[in-house]
Amino acid sequence: MASASSFTPSSSSTPSTPQRIHDVFLSFKGNDTGFTFTDHLYKALVGRGIRTFRDDKIRGEGVDPELLKVIEESRSSIIVFSKNYARSPWCLDELVKIMECQKDLGHVVFPIFYHVDPSHVRKQTGSFGEAFVGHEYIWTDKTPRWRTALTEAANLSGRHLRDG
Questions:
Q1: Which one of 94, 100, 130, 152 is the catalytic residue?
Q2: Active site includes 72?
Q3: Tell me, which fold does domain 22-161 have in CATH?
Q4: How does pLDDT run across 78-89, given as a tens digit for each residue?
Q5: Model pTM above 0.70
Q6: C-beta of residue 150 within 8 angstroms of C-beta of residue 121
Q7: Integer angstrom CA distances of residue 162 from 33, 110, 114, 122
């Protein structure tokens, strides 16, 4: 059975061995794909009995620590890179946590490049480069980690969806 958008944190999980509550954590920019591609993907995963978490809440500037815990408690993540993904500090903070979990916990990461070129994500060019023009002045301490996470994620085997 799939989880709803809300979650109940596990009190028995620890940073080194989190309890796996979700099979998949979906990372996406809501305005780009939340009610289209990602919504269809979520329904397809849930329909196959895959416990999937997606956060549909309105976001502020900082990512909620409870959401970072949900990432740790997931076996894998699907990252839906879209045109405005890198404009969201929230999405980029999620991405950093996802990539940390890949290294530290064996978290499986599957990127989907939704109407964006993987090389734009990898090299932070195109809309991804434009997003960093503003970020580098506001988030000077975070941008190096964001850039590294984007490059690492874009180097993974994934799916490039150009149309449809």
A1: 94
A2: no
A3: Rossmann fold (3.40.50)
A4: 999 999 999 999
A5: yes
A6: yes
A7: 14, 17, 6, 17
